[in-house]
Amino acid sequence: MKKIALSTLLLFFAVSGFAQPRMSVVEAARQADSLLSKMTLDEKISMTRGYSRFFFNGIERLGIPYIYLSDASQGVNMRHNLPDPTMVRQLEKSTAFPCPIMLAATFNPALAYDYARSIGEECRAGGVEVLLGPGLNIYRNSQCGRNFEYFGEDPFLTSHITENYVQGMQSTGTAACLKHFLANNTEFYRRRSNSILDERTMREIYLPGFEAGIAAGVACVMTSYNRINGEWAGQSKEVITDLLRGELGFDGLVMTDWNSVYDMQKLILSGQNVEMPGSWKEDITAQELLSQGKITEADIDAMIRPLIATCIRFGLYDRKGDEKYKPELLAKLPEHEAAAYRTSSEGIVLLRNDGLLPLKPGTKILAAGQFLDEIPRGAGSAAVKGYNNVTLRQALEEQFGDRVTFAEKPTKEQFAAADVVLVSVGTLDAESIERPFALPSSAEKLVQQAVGANPRTVVLVNSGSGIRMTGWADKAAAILYGWYPGQNGFRAIAKVLAGELNPSGKLPITIEKEFADSPAKGTIPPDGQFYNECRNERLIQLYDIPYTEGVLVGYRWYDTKGIEPLFPFGHGLSYTTFELSKPRLSAKAIADGEKVKISVRLSNTGTLPGAEVVQLYVSEKNPAVIRPVKELKGFRKTELAPGASQVVEFEIAYRDLAYWCDLTHTWRVNPGDFEILLGTSSADIRHTLPLIAK
To answer: Which of 141, 225, 459, 665 has a CA-to-CA distance to 609 between 20 and 30 Å?
Structure first.
């Protein structure tokens, strides 16, 4: 993998219209060196660590302000527990957006830009210089409590959402931070885990999203809690200097995750720039390392230079006092609410429908379940409370009036007598824990009772990742996946039920029938032992997570192993119907340096307006190494009126056919036969076109 050239980045910015930093990397480094020359040694050492939990340190005598950082990817987490709350003027409210995995379910990168720009504007209003997101760790394990913060299982989809998120966020002047680098795919005692993965797996699955964010000009990267092949990511020279900076070409600011490093000498020499949050009690101090000759002052300079240079380059040091805040941007909160609503309206996934939905006028609904009066959301650093919150009860009453009734614990007779039953179930996922794939027993029992008593049951699932639905999925009349829909997303769900909104979301994940089908099955905790990381964490032995599935993650695993999932990646139904016809390739063969154009006609053959996501996959027919049956290399979301058609076009390059060769340490395409697959999910392929790689 070659280092990304600055000229390539500049071309990318020119094409995308991305707002570039205020100066070049070289000029920012020059100004950083000027500041370094004026610092005392103690001041330099103070800059290696955070301050008051959510700040980069400042030096008032040199005009270096403290820089405020805030979580999270789905909105601004307003911190009211800072050790020194006088350092910032906190926002009074911030928009609770749908969770990032719901954003990915829209398959709409342009919406990711608006989503992140809206959050960035709220950051600027509240004096937040760095937003600690987006999170983009790949969905490998459906039990990971942090999946809701990420963009799903596919590196191509993740990359396109990430680059637009970064551009949208940084267009406001708020610095974005990619996290968590690298292979942080479990929350089960995450500080005790060691992710063991090979070079090919890393480059094909876990690096592309970070590469996309770097190419988009991201300011910051946060390292992960876990070890990678034996060393903690946050203090690993191989991970930070060799891989992130050397191979990926990242020249911005690298920070640790909170309390995630253990060796001060390794930390300083790793390429890391700042240890967060700054409250870590090290066994040996930087001063002691200097006196012992184990590090030099030049090593300290090298550590903090990218921190200072990045803050200069993005203009963060220019904001002092009242200049930090842009309260006028709070006038745009209604626009932010609208962006949140658009995300939920496009991210709702209709998994199953036997024709019951949309509900006929006059239909009476019996609603029951977990989240009638609580807005489900993920917990931890990503939690955002929101304002103008609309519960499911409120949304249903607004939409259906007295045609909806509510029952806390309906009887079998009540279920059976209802025109339609709506059962709300799901999970409340959280940072630092794994949770069972199965629903809580009370929720599972409620769904089983409902579908057993009334075949006209709609199940609404709100969760941050996949759940077990095998016991009732084929008995429910309809299943809606509503994720964590944000502060106003239940309104969109009510409109989907009523038919005023046609669902268009697609699964950014595969939902397996049983967790035992998953490639992560070997890392399942003992039965019932889904512990929080804070409970006796240091008494837990370090444990390995071998990524033995290699590149076969998500649908790549299920397709290649011949394991039928419950619902496949890319799946999502509509109230109208679509047809793909007349696929064409611009050439029958492709050589290195060339591109091939693919086109297919999408037609709305139903009676309602709707949007469909055309998905393009590539497949090598006779691979020399293990390769997935198919890999996503293109997608387009297109909205059409009834009877309308549109030609959907794609372009793939020779590189899109490649795999990473561990022997040559390069991308390689084996000459021979490939196929271009066009469909509306990974399991619904409508057309196959042959292509020869020269």
So the answer is: 459
Does the bond joining 583 to the residue before it have cis omega, within 30 degrees of 0?
no
Helices (H), 454-517: 489-498
262 neighbors 279 (Cβ within 8 angstroms): no
User: Is 383 a member of any domain?
Assistant: yes
Q: Are 555 and 615 in contact (CB under 8 A)?
A: no
CB atoms under 10 Å from CB of 583, counted, come to: 18
Q: List the structure tokens of 540.
A: 């837990």
- What CA–CA distance (Å, rounded) separates 261 from 276? 9
Q: How confident is the model at residue 529 (pLDDT cuts 50, 70, 90)?
A: low
The two tokens of residue 678 are 């066009």
The answer on 502 and 378 residing in a single domain is yes
- The residue among 122, 254, 107 whose CA lies nearest residue 178 is 254
**What six digits make up the tokens of 501?**
């909104």
Cα torsion angle, 399, 404, 409, 414, sign: negative
Q: Which of 343, 342, 357, 344 is nearest to 574 (CA)?
A: 357
Element (H, E) at 311: helix 297-313
Neighbours of 690 (CB within 10 A): 12
The catalytic residue positions are: 257
197: Cα separation from own chain's centroid? 21
Average pLDDT over residues 79-95: 90
Instruction: Decide: 29 and 312 in contact? Cβ < 8 Å.
Output: no
CA atoms of 6 and 249, how far apart (whole Å): 9
pLDDT of residue 537: 74
Q: Where are the beta strands (DSSP E) in 418-576?
A: 420-426, 457-462, 478-481, 543-546
Position 533, amino acid: E
CB 523, CB 183: distance < 8 Å = no
CATH of the domain at 641: 2.60.40.10
Alpha carbon separation from 104 to 112, 136, 277, 381, 556 (Å, rounded): 8, 11, 30, 20, 18
Torsion of CA 99, 105, 109, 115, to 10 degrees: -20
Q: What are phi and psi of 324, to 5 degrees?
A: -70, -25
Same domain as 378, residue 491: yes
Do residues 162 and 206 lie in contact, with contact meaning Cβ atoms separated by under 8 Å?
no
- Whether 568 and 672 have beta carbons less than 8 Å apart is answered as no
Pair (620, 496) in one structural domain: no
Pairwise CA distance, residues 252 & 256, whole Å:
14
Contact 325, 89 (CB under 8 A): yes
Alpha-carbon gap, residue 336 to 117, rounded angstroms:
9
pLDDT band at 187; cut points 50, 70, 90 = very high
* Domain span at 623: 576-693
Residue 332 CB-half CA count within 13 A: 19
Q: What is the Cα–Cα distance from 375 to 373, expressed in whole angstroms?
A: 7
For residues 404 and 412, give the distance between their C-alpha atoms in angstroms, rounded to a whole number.
18
Domain boundary among 463, 480, 515: 515
SS3 380: coil
Reported as a single tens digit per residue, the pLDDT across 15-26 is: 333 345 889 999
Give the per-residue SS3 of 662-681. Answer: CCCCEEECCCEEEEEEEECC
What residue spans of 126-207 are helical by DSSP H?
Answer: 155-170, 199-201
608 vs 605: CA distance, rounded Å: 9
138 neighbors 153 (Cβ within 8 angstroms):
yes
The size of the chain, in residues, is 694
3-state SS assignment for residue 481:
strand
